[in-house]
Amino acid sequence: xxxxxxxxxxxxxxxxxxxxxxxxxxxxxxxxxxxxxxxxxxxxxxxxxxxxxxxxxxxxxxxxxxxxxxxxxxxxxxxxxxxxxxxxxxxxxxxxxxxxxxxxxxxxxxxxxxxxxxxxxxxxxxxxxxxxxxxxxxxxxxxxxxxxxxxxxxxxxxxxxxxxxxxxxxxxxxxxxxxxxxxxxxxxxxxxxxxxxxxxxxxxxxxxxxxxxxxxxxxxxxxxxxxxxxxxxxxxxxxxxxxxxxxxxxxxxxxxxxxxxxxxxxxxxxxxxxxxxxxxxxxxxxxxxxxxxxxxxxxxxxxxxxxxxx
Length: 310
Prior knowledge:
Blueprint: E1 9-23, E2 34-52, E3 56-62, H1 75-87, E4 92-99, H2 109-125, H3 131-141, H4 145-150, E5 153-157, E6 162-165, E7 172-178, H5 185-195, H6 208-216, H7 219-225, E8 227-228, H8 231-237, H9 239-250, E9 255-258, E10 265-269, H10 272-285, E11 290-296, E12 302-303
Parallel strand pairs: 1-8, 3-4
Antiparallel strand pairs: 1-2, 1-12, 2-4, 2-5, 5-6, 7-10, 7-11, 9-10
Helix pairs in contact: 1-2, 1-3, 2-3, 5-8, 6-7, 8-9
């Protein structure tokens, strides 16, 4: 591949929330085995790739760029390098990352970036990688990247990278209560290890309640079944988030859960109007300054025309 085309390719990838997250004991490899139900929601990051003669250049735009690295550790650049090596690309690219997903929020924004970059680079450079190859590269980049490729609602196993589509019906509406201060995933897992020290933890498994609710499309049943083994650790580090969960439930949410390792709280609501009501209540109460309304499931990373950015 010469990499001399000048056509730009844009790809949008979604944030995720975990409807169920079961975490096993720390393994000898330094990781915790998990079983989770991923759910892609309508909060997105966009990656636009324009092939160039040489080198990789990253540009950041959007409301959530603070704390995003611009060096070689950025997952967009790492994804581009993997595609270039796999596809034998000799040229380079300008990569424009527009952030709509908050950073360090438990919404897998970095993983969405990586998935979008994999798809965009493959299309822009015309490397012709199949879905299996992209999923293989995704697993090298992070536990949630494969799901960001697939989207929808799916079960994740292993470290989360082993993806199986879930039998699910219906659309679900969410209010995401955001926090200005992010949470480190390693810190939350370390707290989880501290809180569970000396206990024999069962093998992780997805709860029947979540799967039954998804199969039937029962919004209220899903609200009752939401579960996250990391939630206690997150609340231990950030007690204010436990208070916020109580406020959201008091104001009528069908259920609430810490997304991943937090700090974002995802509140399930009945419909768009209910989402508006809860958003206003949360902000008016002073419990949360910033909320986003979202729905799911939505598609994973794919090539398409993106809405015009303001």
